[in-house]
Design goal:
The protein is of the alpha+beta class. Helices cover about 15% and strands about 15% of the residues.
Length: about 80
């Protein structure tokens, strides 16, 4: 696919989620199966951030620190 084909097309970034409204009943947590299922129902592409843990496990996380999505401030990417 040429890069020009992607310009102006919507993408479910981290799946379909609404981080700004906790009271939205259609809100899904980012990078969850439900967020990606909903994203593909509405759009034709999705994006995720893949990380590799120190012990070799693959996981999805947009940030280098999990404080934005969890109640801890640990770094996950050195």
């Amino acid at each position: 696919m040429e890069n020009d084909e992607l310009v102006g097309r919507l993408c479910a970034h981290r799946g379909y989620h609404n981080p700004l409204d906790d009271n939205d009943p259609t809100r899904f947590l980012e990078n969850t199966r439900l967020a990606y299922v909903r994203g593909f129902e509405l759009l034709d592409r999705a994006e995720c951030d893949v990380q590799l843990s120190a012990d070799g496990e693959v996981f999805l996380l947009h940030d280098s620190c999990i404080a934005r999505v969890a109640a801890v401030t640990d770094l996950v990417v050195p």
